């Protein structure tokens, strides 16, 4: 397993070992003892999302029951985005993005204090992500995917959004995490 810090060092790109032969492939999507190199959080919930090309989900986070996430693509390809919303962080308001796919098998780890979103760039995509706490609909918040202050460089121009994502808050209006970040 190869672990690489992104431009925001707390967000990690993980490349698990993939064993391929004429039958197909095998890789571990998670193994607690090996992933301790990345995080000491205990994951509590797994989510699965299946979407078609052009769907954009996010930018989501929870102010109650905040979640660290480990994102893996089982089928297709996504452009995965993490936005630092930790007030006091030297990278507050900055974002990083990675292409994750069933071909490259890369994973993205986002610690607590990041908004998360992705868009589907393949015909279809199936995404699983581990979460460090349970989903709490009352604590969920969404930041506009195209907020000009963030200026995320999405690879699509007119995404398919859920009604909730279509009326998201601007970055300036959104509540942030007040954390002591070293």
Can you summarize this structure?
The chain is mainly beta and 182 residues long.
Characterise this structure:
- The chain is mostly beta strands.
- The protein has helices at residues 32-35, 163-166, and strands at 2-5, 12-15, 19-21, 24-26, 45-52, 56-62, 69-75, 77-84, 86-87, 95-101, 107-110, 114-120, 124-131, 140-142, 177-178.
- It has a single domain (2-178), classed as Jelly Rolls, CATH 2.60.120.
- It contains two helices and 15 strands.
- The chain has a six-stranded antiparallel sheet with strand order 1-2-11-7-13-5, with no helix packed on it. A five-stranded antiparallel sheet has the order 10-8-12-6-14, with no helix packed on it. Strands 3-4 form a two-stranded antiparallel sheet.
- Strand 3 and strand 4 form a beta hairpin.
- The longest helix has 4 residues, at 32-35.
- The protein is globular, with a radius of gyration of 16 Å.
Q: Mean pLDDT, rounded to whole units?
A: 93
**Measured on Cα atoms, how large is the radius of gyration?**
16 Å
CATH topology tier name = Jelly Rolls
The level-1 CATH class: Mainly Beta
Structural class: mainly beta
Number of strands: 15
Write down the overall geometry.
globular
- Main-sheet strand order equals 1-2-11-7-13-5
| End-to-end gap | 27 Å
| CATH H-level superfamily | Jelly Rolls
Uncertain residue segments? none
- Share in helix: under 10%
Q: Please, how many helices?
A: 2
Q: Let me know the largest β-sheet.
A: 6 strands, antiparallel
Architecture, CATH level 2? Sandwich
């Amino acid at each position: 397993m190869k672990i690489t810090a992104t431009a925001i060092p707390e967000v990690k790109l993980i490349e698990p070992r993939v064993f391929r032969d004429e039958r197909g492939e095998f890789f571990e999507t998670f193994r607690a003892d090996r992933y301790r190199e990345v995080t000491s959080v205990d994951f509590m919930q797994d989510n699965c999302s299946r979407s078609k090309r052009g769907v954009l989900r996010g930018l989501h986070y929870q102010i109650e029951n905040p979640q660290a996430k480990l994102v893996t693509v089982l089928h297709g390809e996504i452009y995965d985005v993490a936005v630092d919303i930790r007030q006091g962080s030297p990278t507050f308001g900055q974002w990083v993005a990675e292409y994750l796919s069933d071909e490259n098998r890369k994973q993205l780890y986002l610690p607590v204090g990041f908004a998360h979103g992705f868009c589907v760039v393949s015909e279809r995509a199936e995404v699983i992500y581990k979460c460090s706490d349970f989903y709490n609909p009352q604590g969920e918040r969404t930041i506009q995917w195209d907020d000009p202050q963030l200026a995320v460089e999405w690879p699509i121009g007119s995404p398919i959004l859920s009604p909730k994502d279509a009326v998201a808050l601007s970055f300036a209006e959104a509540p942030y995490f007040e954390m002591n970040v070293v």
